[in-house]
Design goal:
The complex is a heterodimer.
Chain A (H helix, E strand, L loop, with lengths): L1 H18 L4 H9 L5 H11 L5 H14 L1 E4 L4 E4 L14 H36 L4 H15 L2 H15 L16 H34 L3 H8 L4 H29 L3 H6 L5 H10 L3 H29 L7
Chain B lengths: L15 H6 L10 H11 L1 H18 L1 H8 L41 H37 L1 H15 L3 H10 L4 E2 L2 E2 H16 L1 H16 L2 H8 L4 H37 L11 H8 L6 H29 L5
Antiparallel strand pairs in B: 1-2
Classes of the chains: A mainly alpha, B mainly alpha.
GO biological process, one term (chain B): transmembrane transport
Protein name (chain B): Peptide/nickel transport system permease protein/oligopeptide transport system permease protein
Keywords (chain B): Cell membrane, Membrane, Transmembrane, Transmembrane helix, Transport
Chain lengths: 323, 330
């Protein structure tokens, strides 16, 4: 699957611009700047291989990812260690270290929010299902429906207006402290983004959990479990919830993978220096190597997350056995 | 979809709903859509959502006359409504008055009401057309995968997996960011609208495709398909005349639920500055301009509420529609 994604990404960002009229020289001129003479531009295009057939360029790109690449720029040879995503058009820096720098921010954001939304969403869903039709059920499902209808950049802005600029409880957008520097400050800065992001996702999880629980709690084995005289809490959690957990896990795998790949909207709203912001900047600057890098890393996380979820199925669902 | 049964006389007990409706009435066979309509009519919340959806569509269609009657042209600057020393709107609540119903924007004094009404047009246009595109792609591929099975199903199923696990937002942003200014005989925002419809529609077909494929898998085994086959019907005939009509209900439901997702998608792209270019008013674009004016809550609130109400109305209506068409629901 990563192969498909890398091919599609490569196709779109390297081949389409060339169809649209960007010559190899035009691409090369993005590296050397406007002041360069046409001869220099031509030479660079030749060195970077923009004149080669598409398949050769793709092959070289993939090879760079695994074994690193060498760029011969005339006066010497530049080493680009694996995984080599090439060099930024704008800064001339290799793309990979920049990506690695920004990963902790997005990772912190995603993990914190995920913990909150899973706990909140699943427990609200379970209680709603158990007390179907009650005031709590109607209130929480109404809130959940509103939650899935609210764009994060709107709730995020409102939360900033109210809690940061109005009440002054939380730091304004853009505050980021590394976990290793000061864990308390780290959590405090991220509190607002976590809650806002979690609210958005918790809504969907509550709806899904409720639907699943309503279905499983009507099953025969639940009656059997009750007939055995098990405590109600045990029936609900070990027999009911466990069976309803599989679709939630599937959704979680996708959501979490996508989130690590770039919480673009959240990071833009709170101006957090993570991968999502990196992606937006790269796109604004039309910095193709950076765009390529961030899309591939994002896709990679989705794949890894779904792999982990596949393994977790075996834990949750006893019918699935790892072979 | 024809009537599942043609009840007459004493068969009333076979049809619980007709009992509910009152015994003694003349009993007719009801089509599924008729039953769904009856259920929907009882669901007041869903009807409310549907009513708001209809209103929004009317507002979008008649945005020109509405703006002419209640506001100022959405692109017109009103320096007289702006305090020139602070560049903020004059008067309380962001300059809200009979003249400017929802106040004016800071700095240039554009009428927020007009811009929101004009933004409805673009949001709904993209929401509907992108959904139409994903329904066409999703239904075609879903039916083909479900009906033919085998390697065709394998290939299309894989494709859906790849699409569902794609970092769509990052990708769509990247794609929308490289839209040229001219192409396909269109220019500027006309081209951008067309491209956004294409990008959003193209990325959201798998959700419909999955549902259609699943439904087709079970329809394929039904007797009427066997009957058509044994009468010598061709694949095309079976797909379009036998299978597809039975898929209309789920397609309608999930299309209704996809429209709000697509509206949010467009708003997100415009918010990030890769959707529709300013000065053309869009809700997402208005929010991204409002980012710089945190002290003016009205500037943030109105476009955000417009998105929220629209999306919520579609979601509520779609949920009601799904419950109404669900044969398992009571």
């Amino acid at each position: 699957m990563l192969i498909v994604i890398s091919m599609v990404t490569f196709g779109i960002f390297f081949v389409v611009p060339q169809w649209a009229g960007a010559t190899p020289e035009a691409l090369a001129s993005r590296y050397v700047g406007r002041a360069a003479t046409p001869e220099t531009v031509h030479l660079v295009a030749e060195r970077l291989g923009f004149n080669d057939p598409v398949v050769v360029q793709y092959g070289r790109f993939v090879k760079g990812l695994f074994t690193g690449a060498e760029y011969d720029y005339g006066a010497g040879v530049e080493q680009c260690p694996a995984p080599c995503f090439g060099y930024s058009f704008i800064s001339g820096q290799p793309v990979w270290p920049d990506l690695v720098d920004r990963l902790p921010v997005t990772f912190s954001l995603a993990v914190g929010a995920a913990i909150i939304w899973v706990l909140a969403g699943v427990s609200v869903g379970v209680i709603s299902a158990l007390r179907r039709g009650s005031f709590f059920d109607r209130l929480s499902m109404g809130t959940a429906l509103a939650g899935v209808s609210l764009p994060i950049f709107f709730t995020g802005m409102i939360s900033l207006v109210v809690f940061s600029y109005g009440l002054g409880w939380t730091p304004p957008g853009g505050a980021w402290t590394d976990f290793t520097v000061n864990p308390a400050q780290w959590a405090f800065n991220l509190l607002l983004p976590w809650i806002t992001l979690a609210f958005l996702f918790a809504a969907g999880y509550a709806r899904l959990t409720r639907a699943g629980m309503l279905e499983t709690m009507g099953e025969d084995y639940i009656r059997t479990a009750r007939a055995k005289g098990l405590r109600e809490g045990k029936v609900v959690v070990k027999h009911g919830l466990r069976a309803a957990l599989t679709p939630i896990l599937t959704l979680f795998g996708i959501d979490f993978g996508l989130l690590i790949g770039g919480a673009v909207l959240t990071e833009t709203t709170y101006t957090l220096p993570g991968l999502g912001q990196f992606a937006i900047l790269a796109i604004r600057n039309q910095d193709l190597p950076q765009v390529m890098g961030v899309v591939l890393v994002a896709a990679g996380f989705v794949v890894v997350a779904s792999l982990i979820v596949d393994l977790l199925y075996a834990v949750v669902d006893p019918r699935v056995r790892l072979s | 979809m024809t009537a599942p049964l043609d009840v007459s006389g004493s068969a009333a007990e076979a049809h619980p709903e007709s009992v509910l409706a009152g015994a003694g009435k003349a009993i007719q066979g009801r089509s599924l859509s008729r039953i769904a309509w009856m259920r929907l009519r009882r669901d007041k919340i869903a009807l409310g959502g549907g009513l708001i959806v209809v209103l929004l569509i009317l507002v979008a269609i008649f945005s020109g006359p509405i703006i002419a009657a209640f506001g100022h042209p959405p692109l017109e600057f009103h320096q007289d409504a702006i305090d020139q020393s602070t560049l903020l709107p004059k008067g309380a609540f962001g300059g809200m008055s009979g003249e400017y119903l929802l106040g004016v924007e800071p700095v240039n004094g554009r009428d927020i009401f007009s811009r929101i009404v004009a933004g409805a047009w673009i949001s709904l246009l993209i929401g509907f057309l992108a959904t139409l595109l994903s329904v066409v792609i999703g239904t075609t591929l879903g039916v083909v995968a479900g009906y033919f099975g085998g390697w065709v199903d394998q290939v299309i199923g894989r494709l859906m997996d790849v699409f569902l696990a794609f970092p769509l937002l990052v990708f769509a942003i990247a794609l929308a960011g490289v839209i040229p200014d001219k192409g396909f005989g269109l220019e500027g925002n006309g081209l951008r609208i067309a491209m956004l419809i294409f990008i959003i529609g193209f990325f959201s077909w798998p959700s419909i495709g999955r549902i259609v494929r699943g439904q087709t898998l079970s329809l394929r085994e039904r007797e009427f398909v066997d009957a058509a086959k044994s009468l010598g019907a061709r694949h095309g005939y079976i797909l379009f005349r036998e299978v597809l009509p039975n898929l209309l209900a789920p397609i309608l439901v999930y299309a209704t639920l996809l429209i709000p997702t697509n509206i949010l998608f467009e708003a997100a792209l415009s918010f990030l500055g890769v959707g529709i270019n300013p000065p053309t008013p869009t809700w997402g674009g208005m929010l991204s301009e409002a980012v710089r004016f945190y002290t003016l809550p009205h500037f943030v609130l109105f476009p955000g509420l417009a998105i929220f109400i629209t999306v919520l109305a579609f979601n509520v209506f779609g949920d009601g529609l799904r419950d109404a068409f669900d044969p398992r629901a009571r």
